[in-house]
Amino acid sequence: xxxxxxxxxxxxxxxxxxxxxxxxxxxxxxxxxxxxxxxxxxxxxxxxxxxxxxxxxxxxxxxxxxxxxxxxxxxxxxxxxxxxxxxxxxxxxxxxxxxxxxxxxxxxxxxxxxxxxxxxx
Length: 121
Fold this sequence. Notes:
The protein is α/β, with parallel strands linked by helices. It has one domain: Response regulator (Rossmann fold, 3-Layer(aba) Sandwich), CATH 3.40.50.2300. It has helices at 12-24, 35-39, 60-70, 85-94, 106-118, and strands at 4-8, 28-32, 48-52, 75-80, 97-101. Strands 2-1-3-4-5 form a 5-stranded parallel sheet, with helices on both faces. The longest helix has 13 residues, at 12-24. It starts with a strand and ends with a helix. The relative contact order is 0.18.
């Protein structure tokens, strides 16, 4: 059974391209244009959330905390053009979470998700 991924980004083009690539790779992909929109979804069914860090209303780390309240087993990939040491430390402490720097290749995104599938980050 394909893992279910929630892809969250306020950039519609990033959502479109990543969702298409992940779907073509056999993943069941759902999208949200903001963290707030993502939290309106039923989060218990997702295996992995891939989220942008910098979004209006709520950032990716705040989303991670909220997702984990509803689905503690969910993996998390944070995407950003840059985050500080404090954010990286918070991500590390959260467990089952990974960071990829934007811009990234689809190959890197797929490698990161494959690492999740192979075992915990």
